[in-house]
Amino acid sequence: MEVLTDNAGLFWQGFVGTVRLMCLSTLLAFALGIVLVSFRVSPVPLCRGLGATVVTVLCNTPLTVLFFGVTLGLPMLGLTEAGYFTLAVLVMGGYASAFVCEALRSGVNAVELGQAEAARSLGMSTAQTAALIVFPQAGRAAVPPLGNVVITLVKNSALAGGFSVYELFSTEKTLVERGYAVAVVFLWVTAAYLVLIAVISAGFHLLERRLAVPG
Predict the structure, then answer these.
(1) Whole-model pTM over 0.70
(2) Could you tell me which residue ranges the ABC transmembrane type-1 domain spans (predicted)?
(3) 26, 19 Cβ separation under 8 angstroms
(4) Phi-psi category of residue 171: left, alpha or beta, with phi > 0 → left and psi -120 to 50 → alpha
């Protein structure tokens, strides 16, 4: 317990760093994911092909490789103004956007085709049908997998600690370097991750219940 009480400020700094990284990455992932799923379900073949290519590349590239590519590649191109935290948000948000896209696409596939056809028969455009009919229902169906994407983002945030971003895993390294027992420090850091994940899981579970269609 002394490890926690004596270093409460350090633990709090790492916890806040992880939460900030998770929240900003999630917002970016959802924004890009919506754009990608719009491409994936577009009636235009070129858009579908472009969306599928981006999703395939992101889903099949290890996150560590993306971190190295961005943090080492951008400075080589002369783009050195962005800080490591900003780069971490871009990498994690971009990576997770592919999984957000696939979660939403599974929701889109769960919407009955007849509803889109009925909307078009009423004179709605493709964009109106998607925004007002298909995507709201797809979002409801995609809540559970989207929750898993956000939880995975929290876990993946530990990788950012290896790229000069201060978060929970960085706290562990700092305290171990100060001579604290590895097992004890790891226990408290793990507990912090578990608390954060439990809160996110509870939030998405509540959202799923709120959006559930009465049977």
Answers:
(1) yes
(2) 15-208
(3) no
(4) alpha
